[in-house]
Structure formats: C-alpha cells, structure tokens
Amino acid sequence: MNNTKTGILISSSFGKIVGLLPLIQRDIIQTLYITLYPYDDNGPSSRTNATSTFHTPQISSKLISTYAKTTVFKNINVRILLNKFQRKNQWEIKTSKSIDVIYFDQVIKEDIKKCIVNKAADYKMVYLDSSNIDESSFDANSNASCTCTGIPDFIYSHSVLGGTFDRLHAGHKILLSEAVLRSSKKVTVGVTDGPMLHSKKLWELIEPCQIRKENVLSFLQDIDPSLEYDIVSITDIFGPTKDDPTFEVMTC
Questions:
Q1: Alpha carbon distance 195, 103 (integer Å)
Q2: Fold matches, 6-127 and 156-250
Q3: Averaged pLDDT for residues 88-110
C-alpha cells in the first residue's frame, strides 16, 4: 500500500490513536482524518454513542493531547473531525480529499462505510490491532492538560479568532478546533497581513496571505463542513471585530 495518500482512522477511543499511528505511518499516509467510532449496539440514531459522552472542555483536553503527541509523525497531516461531537445526529463524513484507506480498531459495521462520502474507487479497509495499547498514560496526560475545569459548556452562534497561521501546525489546529467546538453556526478567522507581519522576525519568509487563508479554510471545512466560515485578511489588531456586532465569543 505504498502509494496511499489519504486515509481515515475510525478509532474506538482517543487513547488508542497515538498508539496506532506507527502502524499507519508504514503506509506513507500524507493526510490522515481521525474520528471516533460513532456507533453503539443501537446504531447511528442512538444518543448514547461514544462521542456523546464528552463535553466541550473534555474534548478540548483530548484534542490538545492528541495533536501534541502526533507531531512526531512528520509526514502525516492529522485532522481530527469534530462534527460528530457537536452535531451528534449527523453521521455523514465529508472530506476534501478522497479516502484511499479506512483504518479501524474494532469490528466495523457495514453501514459506516456508507457514511464516508468521498472514497476512492479502489479504497481499502485495514484492521489495526489495538489490544496491546495502554490508554492510561494518555488519559492521565489529557486530564492534566485540561485547564478548563469549571468552564461552562457554552456554545455560541458566531465565534472569531485571529492569527498568522503560517505553515499550519498542531498549535494552529488546536486553536481552530476550539473555535469550531464553541460554534453552532459560523466561525470568522482573521489572517494577519501587511503591517501586522513586519514586526515578526524573518517576516519575508512567511507564506503569502492567500495561501495561509486557503489552508485555514481547507482545515476548517474538513473538520466540520456543517459550519459557515469567513476567512479574512487583517492589517490591525481589531480586524472585523470593530464592525461586526454578531460576534459572541473570541477564541484565543
């Protein structure tokens, strides 16, 4: 399977993901989408599936731990899909890239393959044995990294955030994911340009603003295509926040 470019891992838990990545890396994956197994014995309509047991602060801590641990896999562009957590009645998985291989670590139901919309004509199914993976260290680390104890589980209609987003990395992905987790309708992202870049060291090496905006939009549309996104250039610290009264929360 040495020509595989894009895969999706359907894992039974967050704690097993990092332990499975060395097995996936052997297939020379470029982009790897990750989602939790969305079914229990009652099927996709059940409200007691694995992904419904998390609240936003818990998901945040697990996202931080997962993205942090996946940075050692330099050739894999990890994207953790979030719409299963916020919109639990939606089981359709839409990705911008066609899926070459579906990885799973438990018996997979036949109808889950139908949920993955964009599959290559010759896609493959690969079972990964996770029985020897110790999840306890991941759970301990993710709980320790959670600084959001006591934060209400609020969801807002329209959130906003800003950044340079040069060469999208794990920190950017965490920040953007936090905004998505807190939004029910729309996310606006300000991408710095012009005079806001000149104070940075080696600012001339920063990717063109249009490329950075496209990378941000691609990531957001992958992790949750159900939201509306507005990616804008900003040349001052206020960006669109000084003109748009619909913003309800700022992610930072």
A1: 45
A2: yes
A3: 82
CB 65 within 8 A of CB 142: yes
pLDDT tens for each residue of 180-216: 999 999 999 999 999 989 888 888 889 999 999 999 9
Per-residue tokens: 152: 């209400």
Q: What is the CA radius of gyration of the chain?
A: 18
Which tokens belong to 94? 């839409």
Enumerate the domain spans of the chain: 6-127, 156-250
The CATH class of the 6-127 domain is alpha beta
Write the burial class of residue 8 (CB in 10 Å: 0-12 exposed, 13-18 middle, 19+ buried). Answer: buried
The residues facing 188 across adjacent strands are 160, 230
For residue 8, list its beta bridge partners: 33, 102
**DSSP letter string over 117-161?**
-SEEEEEEEEE---TT---HHHHHHHHHH---TT-----EEEEEE
Give the C-alpha separation, 127 to 247, whole Å. Answer: 44
CATH superfamily placement of domain 156-250: HUPs (3.40.50.620)
Residue length, the chain? 252
55 CB neighbour count, 10 Å cutoff? 14
